[in-house]
UniProtKB/TrEMBL annotation:
Keyword Secreted in record: no
Annotated transmembrane regions: 172-192
Known catalytic reactions: ATP + protein L-histidine = ADP + protein N-phospho-L-histidine
Organism: Yoonia ponticola
Protein name in the entry: histidine kinase
Domain HAMP: 189-240
Lineage: superkingdom: Bacteria
Length: 461
């Protein structure tokens, strides 16, 4: 079977094919045995009639002083004639001499056993004939003579009955096969039901549902269930470790960096040495850079982790945008950049992880502010078309240049326009990953009249 069925083939097809092959073999056997039994029965019946006729003739033989008297009982022939339009031949011999009948009707090869008929088939007069033969000894002229009686009959009627029987056997075989075929389809379906149920139950699970599968399954599926549950448990463990790692890493990276920064600031305040102050300023800048990169890296890890694990909740986009924009106003104020929000009054709600949307939005506004010139305006516009929420972040900054957007989205990729603006190259990656997870789209391009325009399309709840 290994080579007949591909490992990826359907179990149902495999089962049905095997069952059909078995059914076909059984139907064939049924056909052959019904035919054999029927033929034997027909032949036995025919032989019995033939034998009776032969014996009836033999018993009418009378010996005597003046020879042998043969009085053929016509009842014997009518008995044979009753079975069809078969031709009947006979031959009676005294010793080796034919006294009446067809002298060329063949004799049996084996010696005869008295009045118990011997039957044999052979070719005669262009037909196969079945012959019954008996012998008895009769006193003729005072001498005991062996008289042999042969009665032969063509087999037209018997063959016709056999053919009819064969047809019936074939119908029976076909019927059996059809019935088995229907049964095999039902069997295959019923065998696969538990498997399908299990697949359905697994498919219905939400992305966060990492409980072990606890269902009654057939014994054969138990190892699969065990493996599945083992796998789920390992996955749960790995996810928990990832989550722990992300939170711990955030803590263990940020805290020491903050300490270094504070110490450097204190040192800077305490010294008048210009060279030392410059060095300390470089240290502070490097620490800021590291803290920022670490933060972005962990943010991205969080996004990747939560995109699989996402907690679905209803998120009202308007208030979220206002919150995030608010958090940027100190930074923007320092450079005299105005942050304007344009959102409709209607509630625009998404079904997603709030933290992820916030993370994407924060990165876009961060870029807009970072890469804007002082004393300019950053616009955040929210709108909806009924199926998507459209969120645009527009600035009048240095712009990203034409055709760069695809490369800039890559991990750790920063543009040539960055100058001395700090960054890690992960912001747009985060934005893209979040929009992918929610099933939306993200585009960033040159804005008409200068600056950059970032557009998020997010499916509504
Ligand atoms: N609003 C923008 N104006 C100009 N350039 C931008 C803007 N947003 C993104 N970019 C370009 O895209 C690059 C990738 O952005 P991002 O992934 O956020 O990295 P980062 O901001 O850390 O440099 C930036 O380095 C910058 O060159
Ligand atoms: Mg950025």
């Amino acid at each position: 079977m290994m080579t007949v069925f591909s490992p990826a083939g359907s179990i149902r097809r495999r089962l049905v094919v095997i069952l059909l092959v078995v059914a076909a073999v059984l139907a064939g056997l049924l056909f052959v045995s019904v035919r054999t039994v029927a033929n034997t029965a027909v032949e036995t019946t025919q032989d019995a009639i033939l034998g009776a006729a032969t014996v009836a003739i033999a018993e009418e033989l009378r010996g005597g002083e003046d020879g042998l008297t043969i009085d053929i009982p016509y009842a014997a022939f009518s008995m044979l004639g009753a079975t069809g339009q078969d031709r009947v031949f006979y031959r009676i011999l005294v010793g080796a001499e034919t006294v009446t009948g067809y002298a060329d009707l063949p004799l049996p090869d084996a010696p005869l056993s008295g009045l118990k008929p011997t039957f044999f088939s052979q070719q005669y007069d262009g037909d196969v004939v079945r012959t019954g033969a008996v012998s008895r000894s009769v006193l003729v002229d005072g001498r005991s003579q062996i008289v042999t009686v042969l009665v032969a009959q063509t087999r037209t009627a018997q063959d016709a009955i056999s053919r009819q029987m064969a047809n019936q056997a074939a119908t029976l075989g076909l019927g059996f096969f059809a019935f088995a075929a229907i049964l095999s389809i039902f069997t295959a379906r019923s065998v696969l039901t538990p498997l399908n149920r299990l697949a359905e139950a697994m498919g219905r699970r939400g992305p966060q549902d990492l409980r072990p599968v606890d269902r009654a399954v057939p014994t054969e599926l138990a190892p699969l269930m065990q493996a599945l549950n083992g796998f789920i448990a390992r996955l749960r463990g790995a996810l928990t470790r990832t989550e722990t790692f992300i939170t711990e890493a955030a803590h263990h990276v940020r805290t020491p960096l903050a300490t270094v920064r504070v110490q450097a600031e204190i040192a800077m305040r305490q010294t008048d040495d210009d060279a030392l102050r410059a060095t300390l300023r470089n240290i502070i800048r490097a620490v800021d850079d590291s803290a920022r990169s670490a933060g972005q890296l962990l943010d991205h890890a969080t996004v990747v982790y939560r995109a699989d694990q996402r907690a679905d909740e209803l998120v009202a986009l308007g208030p979220l945008v206002l919150d995030v924009v608010d958090s940027f106003s100190p930074t923007a104020d320092m450079r005299d950049i105005a942050l304007r929000v344009d959102a409709p009054d209607e509630v625009i709600a998404l079904q997603f992880d709030r933290l992820l949307i916030e993370s994407a939005l924060r990165n876009l506004i961060d870029n807009a502010v970072k890469y804007s010139y002082a004393d300019s305006i950053v616009d955040v516009q929210l709108s909806t078309d009924g199926t998507f929420a459209k969120l645009q972040v527009l600035d009048r900054g240095r712009g990203i240049g034409d055709g760069n957007s695809v490369q800039l989205v890559a991990r750790f990729k920063r543009g040539e326009n960055v100058g001395d603006v700090v960054g890690s190259g992960l912001g747009l990656t985060i934005v893209r990953d979040v929009t992918r997870a929610i099933g939306g789209s993200f585009d960033i391009k040159e804005r008409q009249g200068g600056g950059t325009c970032a557009i998020l399309l997010l499916p509504l709840a």
